[in-house]
Design a protein that fits this description.
By secondary structure, the protein is α/β, with parallel strands linked by helices. It is built from twelve helices and 18 strands. It has two domains: 181 residues, Rossmann fold; 192 residues, Dihydrodipicolinate Reductase, domain 2 (2-Layer Sandwich), CATH 3.30.360. Helices cover 34% and strands 22% of the residues. The strands form four sheets. The chain has a nine-stranded mixed sheet with strand order 16-15-14-13-9-12-11-10-18. A five-stranded parallel sheet has the order 5-4-6-7-8, with helices on both faces. A two-stranded antiparallel sheet has the order 1-17. Strand 2 and strand 3 form a beta hairpin. The longest helix is centred in the C-terminal third of the chain and has 20 residues. Nicotinamide-adenine-dinucleotide binds next to strand 4, helix 1 and helix 7.
Length: 405
């Protein structure tokens, strides 16, 4: 089902904690985590971000494929012994039977495990948040989307950068037509960290990202090109019609792409050019989006996420500043600190969880929820993202032929 699905009231059992029924509204939710063990990158960012609003508490998990390591690590997170599981299937089976079962499961494993873990959760009626890319192929992605919709389960995908208030404000301005009819998007995401064979060092993130069994058919597009696709779509509401891509492998003996150039045609006639790279010496996490319309342009840079630039024809360029300049309500409500007190990646992640947990409380309270109004990336957007990656891989294999999405 597409975004816009109305969740009908769910057949949800009463919530029981310490033997008493509890109201769902405003109660603290609970969650389990799969992945994010010792030395992992993003699992700890999720946990820290969720703590910022205190709307959910981590009470169960399997943090590593090595169960001894997972249990040891789980204890450092103060999780009860009986909720530290040996593997994800045991977690899903046992949690789903508990009267105080977790409200949702967060998946922060390498890409290839997202699908089996999420599928098991959905089949056991557990709500899910998964990191991106949703899955390693689009068949799996659509299956998860259908399963979530069929079972009335809320499924969020953590495309981090959509959580910034500036991104939400840009979306709002573009919707109001401030830069006119959209013509062209130039988006780039250069990083340096795979410019050498980091996978031969003890860099575990490099090892699995360059391994097709764990990463999927693409490394660079899957890992960071996917952020461009989702962020541009969030800011502009443009729908991609077709892509022509060239995926390069610059570093010797590497199988998967470490650089990608992608031409995009959107529905309605606008065009785009995306570049993602992990061999861009000198770049840290330099995601930059420039959107050009008939009356103006907007430019946003991830390493300075509290600001963006708006240029209108015939007028001086303006710098918008989060907290200082008036943002519209959808963006303003996610601003946490006064102007000049920088917010960053943790807050962006927290904003995704704030929107997800607020919506989940409504779902648990059997309220209808219109997912087209969701202020977090949904499973449908996750599935669109996987289709984008797949189309880029296919195009590159066919000498950059245009591939419809
Ligand atoms: N949204 C973002 O901005 C963002 C940023 C970084 C990573 N990611 C995504 O997050 C995911 C994790 O990336 P990472 O960089 O944190 O990787 P990582 O290698 O640092 O961490 C992966 C963790 O998963 C654990 N794990 C592996 N297999 C498991 C299994 N079967 N059961 C339980 N745990 C298992 C590992 O032990 C490790 O702790 C990837 O899908 C990646 O694309 C997203």
């Amino acid at each position: 089902m597409p975004v816009g699905t109305i969740f009908s009231a769910l057949q949800k059992e009463d919530i029981v904690i310490d033997g008493s029924k509890v109201e769902t509204v405003n109660r603290q939710l609970t969650y389990a985590m799969v992945g994010g063990g010792p030395g992992a990158f993003i699992g700890d960012v999720h946990r820290s971000a969720i703590r910022l609003d205190d709307k959910a508490n981590l009470v169960a998990g399997v943090f590593s494929s090595d169960s001894a390591k997972s249990r040891e690590f789980g204890q450092t997170l103060h999780i009860a012994q009986d909720r530290l599981y040996d593997d994800y299937m045991q977690l899903v089976e046992q949690e789903s039977k508990r009267p105080d079962k977790v409200d949702f499961v967060v998946i922060v494993t390498p890409n290839a495990y997202h699908y089996p873990v999420a599928k098991a959760c959905l089949e056991h009626k557990l709500h899910v948040v998964s990191d991106k890319p949703l899955t390693v192929d689009s068949k799996q992605a659509r299956e998860l989307e259908n399963l979530a919709n069929k079972n009335g389960l809320l499924f969020g995908v953590t495309y981090t950068y959509t959580g910034y208030p500036t991104v939400k404000e840009i979306r709002s301005l573009i919707k109001k037509g401030i830069i006119g009819e959209l013509r062209f998007v130039n988006a780039e995401y250069p990083q340096e960290w795979l410019a050498t064979r980091s996978e031969d060092t003890d860099n575990r993130q490099a090892k699995w990202r360059t391994d097709p069994k764990l990463s999927g058919a693409s490394n660079c597009v899957g890992d960071i090109g996917s952020h461009i696709e989702n962020l541009v779509s969030t800011m502009t509401s443009l729908k991609i019609r077709r892509v022509s891509a060239r995926l390069d492998v610059f570093v010797e003996n590497r199988v998967l792409d470490d650089n990608a150039s992608i031409m995009v045609d959107y529905e309605g006639g606008a065009k785009g050019l995306y570049w993602s790279s992990q061999i861009a010496v000198g770049s840290d996490n330099a995601l930059r989006i420039r959107i050009y319309g008939s009356k103006g342009s907007i430019s946003w840079f991830q390493e300075d996420p509290d600001h963006f630039q708006l240029s209108l024809l015939g007028e001086p360029t303006r710098i918008y500043s989060r907290g200082r300049d008036e943002f519209s309500q959808p963006a303003q409500k996610f601003s946490r600190l006064p102007s000049g007190h920088p917010e960053g990646l943790f807050e962006a992640f927290a904003n995704i969880y704030k929107a997800y947990t607020d919506t989940l409380l409504k779902v648990l309270d059997k309220e209808d929820v219109d997912l087209s109004q969701a202020d977090f990336p949904t499973v449908s957007q996750g599935a669109d993202g996987v289709r984008f990656i797949e189309a880029c891989v296919l195009s590159s294999r066919q000498d950059s032929a245009w591939i419809d999405l």
